[in-house]
Every structure is written in C-alpha cells, then in structure tokens.
Amino acid sequence: MTQETNLENVLVLEADLWRDGPPHELFQELRSKCPVHWTERITDYPFEAGFWSVTKADDAQAICRDWQTFSSEKGGFTVLTGGFSSQLTRAMFVAMDPPKHDRLKALFQTAFTPRRIAQHEDAIRAIVVRTLERVSSQETCDLVSAVATPVVSRVIGSFMGIPEEDDPIWAKLVTSTFGIGDTDLNPEGMKGLVEREIPEIFERCRHMIAVRRDQPTDDLTSVLVHAEVDGKKLEEHEIIMGFFLLMGAGNDSTKATYCSGMRALIEHPEQRQLLLDDPSLTTSAVEESLRMFPAFPHFRRTATCDTKIGDQQIKEGDKVVMWFVSSNRDEDLYEDPDRFEVTRNPEHQAFGGGGRHFCLGAALARLELRVLFEETLARFPKMALAGEPVMAESAFINQLKTLPVQLAP
Fold it and tell me: Is the pTM for the entire model greater than 0.90?
C-alpha cells in the first residue's frame, strides 16, 4: 500500500492482498489513519455482508472483554458466515456466549492448566525428538510437512485419543477446512468443504463417539461424550464440533507459529545466535514468535446493539473483525514492531485479547513451541533455507504451506 491509498474503498479481504500472507503494510496504514475500518463487501463471497476491521490492540482487547456487546454466538467467530451451518458453529464453545460457554469450557480447563500441561513435557519432547531423528540423515526437508505437521498432529491426537496412524488424515481434514481460500490447501473451496470434508469429519467422529460410549477412556473425546452441561449430556453434533475445535486449534496453531518462527531465526542469524549462546532465551523467543506470527489472523464478533468503537458508529448486527496480525504489531505497544527480537519477551494477543475466549490451549502451545525450538536448534544450529517459503493464501490461517530447509549446510 502507498500514501495515496484510498483507504475508504479498500476491501480488506481481497484475495490479491493475501497472496503472500497477511497484508502488513495495509494494516500499518489502517492503524495510523483508519483504525476501525469498514469493508463493504467480500468479492469472492458475494452473499456475505460487509464488516468492520479493528486493527489496534486496545480496541481488540476491549471487544474481547465485552461479550455482552460483542457476541461470539450471534454470527460465528470468523468473518465468513458460510461453511458449517450456524447450528454447528454455535456447538463449538469458541462460538458461544456465557453462561453456556463458561460451563462447556470448564470441562476442559483442568486438563489445560500450566501445571497439568507441564506433566506432558517428557512425552511431547519424545515426539519431537523422534520426528527430528527421522529427518536427521537427510540433507534437506520441508519443515512444515516433515516436522511441524507430524509433531502437532501426534500431540493433540494423543490428547484426543486418536490412533497415530490416523494423524495424517485428521491433519489434512483440519488444514483443508481452515485453509479455505487457498487452492492448494482446499482446491474446491466451500463446495468441497460442504460435500466432502464436513461429512468425513462427522463420519469419523461418530465412530469414535460410539466406541467411547461403550468403552470410556481418559482422553478428551471421552470427556465430551460423557460430559453433562446443565444436567444434560451433549448432543452428537455438539460433541463433534467440540472435538473438531480442539483438533483444529491443536493442529494448526503450533505448526503455524513454529514454522514462521524458525524462518525468522534462519533469516535473522544474529537472533538465532543469541538463542544458541543463551538457550534460556527460548521462552522469550516463543513469545516473540507468537506476537509476530499469530496462528489465526482474526476472530470475529457481532454487535448485539448500536455502539461505538473509537469514533466509528457500529450498528446492531454488524460484523466486527479483530485482526490480531495487526494488533500484535501496534506501534503504540512495540518499538520497531516488524523487527523479530528474541529478547523482547512481549505481551501479545496471539491467544486473543483476554476475556472469556482467551485460548484454552495457550499453555500447551507454549510448551510445544519451546520444546520444538530447543530440539530443532540443538540438532540443526546452522539450518538454512533451501528454497522459497510459500505462505497460505488465507485470512483465517497465518501459516507457511512449505518451508524448504537445508538441515546442516
């Protein structure tokens, strides 16, 4: 974008803007000149309504903490309303408002506390080490498909009770569903999602549900199957959508931030050397990677009444989209926000802006990222790019499709 950009007429979701990942130059201009911006239409989805873009951290935080005014339930949690039906979308607690959201999320809260997650470190490290050893004899590999995907799939799969041989199937289903808009990740778009991916998700989930009804286990799928909310067991579609939410977040979030963080370390060797010289900085490097490369560029709310954000009048029913890829680079919070600095150790909104919908899996993601960075750098301290990385063309997943690397140049 340039100084002459007519921001009033910019359509934030135009596909051309997202060819190489999030349009950071546009968001920088919006933050300084039009921090709450109206996009009147989505060209690729003509039946979708327009939306407000919120690009500053303080505004995003205020919206996240005010569920009464900005609902997750009324319109869904992404800028696109299509895909899953509204009934299915509202079956995920990320698309619920209190009090039901709080009751359903509480079913899993104890399993994801930092203390409980820390107990899984040895198991997670073993998964990471085993995966890295598989590629250690190779000269090159794609870090996305050879390392990140199998690690995160196995970690969340072990939590959900999925057999390891099914990890690739679920990884593909998740990536195809979340990667709508990218023809490599989802060649048939919404049509394929409705006709193929969603039915397969339901079919596979129904089988797991039936098994756990008769043979309860200690995995999170059993928690969903046998849970009661307000004295009633969850309906089948609620179990399936709760399962898919956990699988989706577990597969795509850590994979996205790890790969982009490793790319940044390769492209900024002085930052990588800081980590090699002082591994205690890894925790800080994780937070900086989360700030600069949040896995999900946006989440959406719907206004429940007429209100204002900054100087803009918002009408009841309007879509309000919080762009975390923008708020995490807010110049009011970060000096030189586009620079990757492993010593920064920032607060950020990669897990949301606080409030009821703060990410349930934050502790797990942080642990996975720390272990992945530690073990990868220990084995391949001089890793280099072996080709041009390719970003997904998507406004809902902020991730690399490929990251070709030379392991030991």
Answer: yes
